Amino acid sequence: MAGIKALVGLSFSGAIGLTFLMLGCALDYYEVYWPMFVLLFYAISPIPYFIAKRVNDDTESSSNACLELAYFFTTGIVVSAFGFPLILARVEVIKWGACGLVLAGNVVIFLTILGFFLVFGRGDDFSWEQW
Amino acid sequence: MSGFLDSVRCSECIDWSEKRNTIASVAAGVLFFTGWWIIIDAAVKYPQTENLNHSYHACGVIATVAFLMINAVSNGQVRGDSYSEGCLGQTGARVWLFIGFMMAFGSLIASMWILFGGYVVNGTADVYPGIAVFFQNAFIFFGGLVFKFGRTEDLWQ
Questions:
Q1: Of B63, B121, B129, B143, which residue is the least packed, with the fewest Cβ within 10 Å?
Q2: ipTM attached to this prediction
Q3: Tens digit of pLDDT for each residue in B52-62?
Q4: Which sequence ranges are marked TM in the entry (chain A) (predicted)?
């Protein structure tokens, strides 16, 4: 039952984040849709973790070079999601206000993804293989 | 008198030593990719080769190759106490790491050279591309150091 509550909360915050992103793109004052490409970063950010998790399944050793490489790449994707709208704003493709909205959406959505892993990642009752 | 923060134990609720490798990896990722985004910023702001010579990008590429080389061998292989010899053995690991660190230091020094020789001394109006090249290489260099030495390989011992 706790899983349902967490799922509802996480989907709510994900919707909030996507709303920020859409506001940054679609308001009449901004009306430039280039920041939508951060959706790609959202989509690929968990992939290194999944790959590393599948490659080595032993979790007893706390030093795990493969998993740390995955954290490194995930961090890179997150940093890229923040750098992309900043660069767009710096070359004046989008306005700074739109950039701020996209950054706020980034924060909310990445916290949502992190929350997903914290809530569902380690529990045995909910594994990704069941899907 | 009892304060309302008395029951907060910051050092106990999170075990930092278990998380050390994760934190080091994330910090290295932040440094490395921030460095690359800095040079992307400079490249889109100054697309002309008079402002930012395109050959200056080679510096960051060398730094990235050095990053990969440094982190491709583990500390255990250099000390010789790993289980397997690897393809080149301990000497090979040492030579490989030596070349990697030489490329890392070399790219850092070269970026300083670019900053001062290409921008500051010439009296160029826009020094920002030189600063971006320097910061890119500094971030990549320190990211490599954090990823190499921030992580421990023998937490279970």
A1: B121
A2: 0.80
A3: 888 999 999 99
A4: 6-25, 32-51, 71-89, 101-121
